Structure formats: C-alpha cells, structure tokens
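Exam revision sheet. Question 4 asks you to relate a sequence to its structure. Input first:
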Amino acid sequence: MRYRESGRLDTSGVQDRRGRGGMGGGGRGLAVGGGGLGLVGVLVLVLFQVIGGGGGGGGVGAGALGGQLGGLGEGQTADNGQLEQQCQTGADANDSVDCAVVADIESIQDYWSGVLGDRYVPTDTVFFSGQVQTSCGGATSGSGPFYCPADQLVYIDLTFFETLQEQFGAEGGLFVNAYVIAHEYGHHVQNLLGYNQQVTPGETGPESGTVRLELQADCFAGSWANHAETVPDESGQPLIAEITQDDIDRALDAAGRIGDDFIQRELGGGNVDQDAFTHGSSEQRQRWFTTGYETGDPGQCDTFATDDLG
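Answer key, structure tokens:
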C-alpha cells in the first residue's frame, strides 16, 4: 500500500489523547466491534485480557514501519499539534504508521461522504494509550479498536497493530491497519443508517444480529478498499496511490485469524462454541470482506437480508 507522496494530510479527524486518558466509571451504550476486525469485542473482553492482548504503550511498528508518535507511554502528553507537525504529506504516511492511519481516516470518510452524501456525518478517531474513558464506559488497550455509538467516536490504541501480528500471527502491514480502521468506520455508518437497531444487545450465535453487524462492517471495509485508489481528497486527487494484491491477501490473512472459531480454537480453550459467536467465523469474515471488495457496492453488504452468511 502506498500513499500519494504530495498529498496533504488532514489531522482534524483525529483526537490524540495518548498519555492523558483515564478510566472513570459509568458510561452508557455498548461499544461495537472491539478488536477492530472483531478480535474480541466487549462481550469477550476477558478472553483477550487472559491471552495478554494489547497491553502497554510501546511503539507501533507494524511491519517494517514505526510511528514516530506511537512510542509515547502513559503519562506523556501528545496533542494534535504534534501529530499535525509529523503528518503533513503522503510521504509521511509512507514512513509512519501514525500518519498512515491519519490518511486512512481521511480516505475512508471521503468515500462514505461520496456514497451517502448529507446522510454521512464525519466523526473522529481517538488515539489513546493504555486506557480511555468513553461515553460507553471505560476501556483499555485490551479491548482492541472499537466504535462507541453513544459518542459516535472510533477508539484505538495503535499498539494493537503489533498485537495483531505478535499474538495472532497475522502478516500485518499498512493495508491491514487500514482494514481495521475501515471496519470501525463501517460501524459508524451502521449507526447512522440504523442497522444497530436491528440487533438485540448481548445476542450471540452464528446467525445473531451481533454477527451480522460485524460481517457487514467487514463488507463495508471491502467496499471502501475497492474504491480507495480513486477516492478524491480536497485537491481532487486520490490520497491512496496503490493497493496491491499482496495487500488484499494480507487483509484476508488477518480476517482468517480473527474469526470466532480461530480465536476459540487457537487462543481460547481449544473448543469451538458457535453459540458464543459474536463476530463470525474466519471463513465468513473473509467472505464478506471479499464481497465488498469485489463488488465495490455497499448495497451488497446487507447481511441482515440474507439467510446465507457463509
């Protein structure tokens, strides 16, 4: 994956809270899509914590790239001024995971603005380190990336990208990171369009509304990926210059490692319990991302209107 070197990055879609988060209490609503690609979700957060996911505030460094701001530890302060200074062009995105995520957010939101027009309401991604307080309650890095419908924000500790490789054995890479972000913005689109209302909170199982919501977010991510090289930024040119077949293969590799069956079998107790599914099987996740990517049509992503989830 490559970004247009001369493209100008807009950091206004990020709230950089690393080093100043706090847990707090209470909260309302239920976060969606914990784990970005649905690694765990709020419903199975304990499993992720048991296997040691996402702890600490170390460097980013997915693949051979390391975000210059990703190494901030808890207690340090980073604001958007520093992010804006570091992430100015597509060349910066090609060199830094932090800046690449900034570019991903911009491209994804430009895509959905084009698809939905006035129905799309842009929202921010919050970079946090270790822990964060949201309108859905407190969360830690162990939650993985997630979307909170109550405040309509996406949350991510960028060290998650390391966890995806180190804990789950994913190949990783910039496009896999973009897939994570696109999945979470898929949840934002679902919230805007009312799909969340079709899901009973806490429902689990292979045909559950919870699984359908996650598979649709995968499909939405694929539909963005289909158009990513042509989505214009404010200059009228695409911010993303190239997505290769290797990038797609890496995303499918990641999808194969974050299905409920893979997590239960390889990282849990070894037994697969479909009644506990919250995100879908590895095969389903791959299928629905592929559906979005091959068609480029979000209209083909209505997982709530089919009896065949794969």
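Marking note for examiners. Strands lie at 2-3, 14-16, 125-127, 131-134, 137-140, 146-148, 153-156, 240-242.
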